[in-house]
Structures are given as C-alpha cells and as structure tokens.
Write a structure and sequence with these properties.
By secondary structure, the chain is of the alpha/beta class. The chain is 34% helix and 15% strand. The strands form four sheets. It has an eight-stranded mixed sheet with strand order 5-4-8-1-9-10-2-11, with helices on both faces. Strands 13-14-15-16 form a four-stranded antiparallel sheet, with helices on one face. A two-stranded parallel ribbon has the order 3-12. It binds calcium ion (CA).
Length: 509
C-alpha cells in the first residue's frame, strides 16, 4: 500500500469517526391541517374549541402569534411549504395551476441526505408527489367519509373510515414499518376542518349546548373597503343551507355523493342527528338576520366538531412518539395552510390579506432547542418553513430558497426572523370573488395594494384597529407612514423578484 493511499484510508476512518460523534439528527413530523383558524384552538385563547393535544404541544414547545402565509389558499400554500419559495417563483399561484413537483422541493433534499420521507393525506397540487420514499394522497380536496386514496402506483382505492382517522392510521402504519436506522420526515396532510365541515359521527352534537356570540363585526357593511364589499364569501349570501349546512330540504342541498359514500351505519347516525336539526329549523321559518344567525350557529357547530377528531388524532401521533421513545428526538410542527373567517366581517373562507386568513396557527415542539412554553411574537412566514427544517436536519439550504431559516429564533426567542411579511393573492376572477392583491404586514401596520381589475390601496393600523375595519389610506395623518410602507413593499417586491407586483407598483398614484 503506498503512502497516499494509507493517508486516504486514515482520513476516511477519521471522517467516519467524526460522523459517528455528530449529534443524532432529529426526526420531523409536520401536521398540516386545512383552514384551521387560530380562533378555534385552545392554546390561542379559543373559548369553545377543545384542543387538549394541541395545547399540550404548545406547552411543550413554542406558540407563534405572528405566523403568516404568503398566499391564503390551499394548493399554493402547500407549494410554498414544499419549496420555500413565493407563489410567483414556484409557479403555483392559484388552485387552478398544476404544481411542477419535479422542481427542487426540500423533502427531496432530506431524502438525499438519508431521511426516510413521506407525505400522507391531502396534497391538492394536481400533479403527484415527487422526491418522497412514500406517499398516499387524497385526490383533490378529498372526502370526509370513506375517502379515496391514491397510492404511489397511481391506483385509487376507497378506505373505510373517517378521513382524519384514516390519514392518521396510515401515518402510524408507515412509522411502524420504517427503517429505524434512519431519521424520518413525514407530512400528515389533514383534510379537516375544510368546507363542508362534515364531523365524525362520534362528534355530532358536541357543541349543541353552546350559543356562540356573534363577532363584533359580523354585520360589517364594508365602508371604505371596495374589495371587501365585492366578495362572495358571506354567511348571509354565499353559505348554502344544503351544501354547507346539510339541510336536505334545500334544493341546492349537500351533494348526494357525500351521503352515498357513507356506510349504512354511518348514514343512520348522520341522518338521526341532522334530520332532527332540520325539523327544528323548518318549524322556526326563519328569515333575514335570524336566518343568517342560525346559519352562523350551525357553521360554528359543524366546523368545531370536525376539529375534535383532528385534535384526537394529533393525540394519537403524540402518543405514538411517546410510546416509541421518539418524543425527545422528533420535531413536531403543527400548522394550517392558512387561517379562516369564523364569522368576522360576516364571512367564512379565506383569500384576503386580512388577519383572520393571512394568519395561520403555528406550534413547534423541538426538545433541546425550544424552551417549553415559549410564546413568539416575531413575524414568521410559511415561506420560512423549508429552510428552517433543512437547517434543523443539517442539510445545506440552497441559495434559491426565498424564505429565511427560523433556527436562530427557535434557539433564542428574542432574535427576529424578518421585519415584515410579504403577501400576494392571485385568484381573480375566481371562487368567492376576491380581487388580486399584494402587500406588506409589519409588526404594526398593513399596506395592501389591490390591482388589475380595480386599482386601490388599503392601510391599517393593527394596534388601533386589529379587526381592520378602518382603511386609513389617503388620510393626511398617515401619508408619511403610507409612503414609508410603500417603499418597504417595493423593496420586498424587488428582493422577491415579483415582476407582476412591480408592474402594478409602476402604475403609481
Ligand atoms: Ca386551505
């Protein structure tokens, strides 16, 4: 053996040794729900939701009060999570686009570095996942009862049970069969609590004893806010008695296909409950505000009931980690693809850059890094998740990623991640008629530019007006603040290479 070969061998042995001494890499579980409002989570101060398992996670980790999405709509939000890039960069601007799953997604980098990776449940990106060891997904929005699931072979089969249980059981089964010599990364893609808020039969009627107070701005008339006045997402006009609230007497009723999927046993329990609700409803002959308020009560009951199963199933995953001695070395991220309106402004749904839908729940438990019981008031964005998890896994963050790693902040709550959050929504004309807009959210202010079909600005002082009822744009007192925010927004557009937004800004007024 010559000298240089010996030297190489010695170096290899040393290298191997150094690697063995390295800290064990953490496993990563991301639980991604759909349309879960912070106002429905106990840890965030919800009065009515029952979320003991999410509350436990917050107690053992960090609760983020200022976590925002960059585009408040299902598919695009998942694309942002996967790529760490804004919608205009990853190409998934609205739900009608098809995600190019062959692009650089961070789970593929985890897989290359030795993680076992999986995505189970709602995917909603039209194309199939790429770069995962395992996936099993709901087609499109998926179904609550006995959902169809698409396997890696591309075939679809119907799985008996309630979607949230099915997705969790499949996740636990995958975890059970994994190669224990490798770290794992799994996304649990929940369907709940997405419209049409169909609760598990076990949870029907759980909120019937509660009369939910109306949000203060339930009867918002949208003065001084053009886009808010144009939307089609109100409980009064848009929410359907049949499709959304399960009343069979409504000609536009819950699609028969939803009920036809149920087993006779499931259907019997379902009908026993909703037939009684409907008989009572018909007896009342409601109209006007009384009808709108009845719809609001039913909406709250159905929505919150779906979150009971959600929390229960999160509990199953946490117990699995406990029982298998994995809790200590597993990062658990709980988040939603965006927030949701629970009657604020009279609405359900999302899309707007206003707080209820731009804000998303975010709870991270990371033993040894995050101090239990941490509450973060720093601005973070869902574009930051990919670089954060890559860094946590010890995998280099590619320079093309537009988000910022939150790791320094997770170690020290005082270190900020970003000064502001950027937002851009594209789907107009589209379902719910929300105009295209982009904007900036700082710790105190929000500046929004609506563009294309109508061109105008909105400005909110979130300290004085957290419900965003008072558009201050154009007021003399706020001219300097608006000008400063506009400049910050322009800088963000340049930094993020958002050409469409820059084009709109060029038409300044
Ligand atoms: Ca969603």
């Amino acid at each position: 053996m010559n000298v240089s070969l010996k030297l190489i061998l010695i170096l290899l042995l040393l290298g191997g040794n150094l690697f063995a001494q390295k800290v064990e890499r953490p496993n990563i579980v991301v639980i991604l729900t759909d349309d879960h409002a912070v106002s429905a989570i106990g840890a965030y101060g919800a009065k009515y939701g029952a979320t003991p398992n999410l509350d436990r996670l917050a107690k053992e980790g960090a609760l983020f009060n200022r976590a925002f999405v960059v585009n408040s709509i299902c598919g695009p939000s998942r694309a942002v999570l996967l790529t760490g890039k804004y919608s205009h960069t990853n190409g998934m601007r609205d739900n009608r686009d098809t995600f190019d799953a062959s692009q650089d997604v961070f789970p593929a980098r985890l897989k290359q570095s030795g993680f076992q990776t999986a995505w189970i449940g709602k995917w909603h990106l039209v194309s199939y996942p790429q770069g995962f060891d395992f996936w099993n997904i709901l087609p499109g929005q998926g179904q609550y009862y006995n959902p169809d699931m698409i396997s890696m072979k591309g075939d679809t089969s119907r799985v008996k049970g309630y979607a949230t249980d099915v997705i969790t059981d499949m996740t636990i089964d995958w975890l059970d069969k994994r190669d224990e010599s490798k770290p794992f990364f799994v996304v649990v893609g929940e369907k709940a609590p997405h419209r049409t808020w169909m609760p598990d039969t076990a949870d029907l009627g759980k909120f019937d004893h509660i009369k939910f107070p109306l949000p203060k701005n339930f009867y918002d008339r949208y003065d001084n806010r053009i886009a808010a006045g144009m939307q089609d997402m109100s409980i009064e006009k848009t929410m359907k008695l049949g499709y959304d609230l399960k009343m069979k007497s409504d000609p536009d009723r819950l699609a028969d296909s939803f009920l036809r999927r149920m087993t006779p046993e499931q259907r019997k329990k379902w009908n026993t409950y909703y037939d009684k609700v409907e008989a009572d409803f018909l007896k009342q002959k409601l109209s006007g505000n009384a009808l709108t308020e009845w719809k609001y009560q039913r909406y709250m009951k159905d929505y919150l009931s779906t979150t009971l199963s959600l929390d229960r199933n999160i509990g199953k995953i946490l117990s699995y980690l406990d029982k298998n001695n994995l809790t200590k070395n597993t990062i658990v991220v709980y988040t939603s693809d965006q927030g949701f309106y629970m009657g604020e402004h009279g609405w359900f749904d999302k899309r707007f850059m206003y707080e209820e839908s731009m804000r998303t729940p975010l709870i991270i438990r990371y033993p040894g890094i995050i101090k239990p019981g941490t509450v973060s008031n720093q601005i973070v964005s869902n574009v930051d998740f990919a670089p954060t998890l890559l860094e946590a896994a010890g995998v280099p963050v590619p320079k093309e990623i537009q988000g910022k790693s939150m790791m320094a902040h997770l170690r020290n709550n005082k270190i900020s991640v970003r000064k502001s959050a950027y937002y851009h929504f594209y789907e107009f004309p589209g379902e719910h008629s929300v105009l295209k807009h982009f904007g900036i959210r700082t710790s105190r202010y929000k500046l929004i530019r609506f563009y294309d079909h109508k061109d105008f600005w909105e400005l909110y002082d979130l300290q004085k007006d957290p419900s965003e009822m008072n558009n201050l744009y154009g007021q003399k007192k706020y001219q300097a603040i608006a000008a400063d925010l506009k400049e910050q927004l322009r800088q963000l557009c340049i930094e993020n290479k958002d050409e469409e937004a820059l084009k709109a800004l060029a038409r300044n007024f």
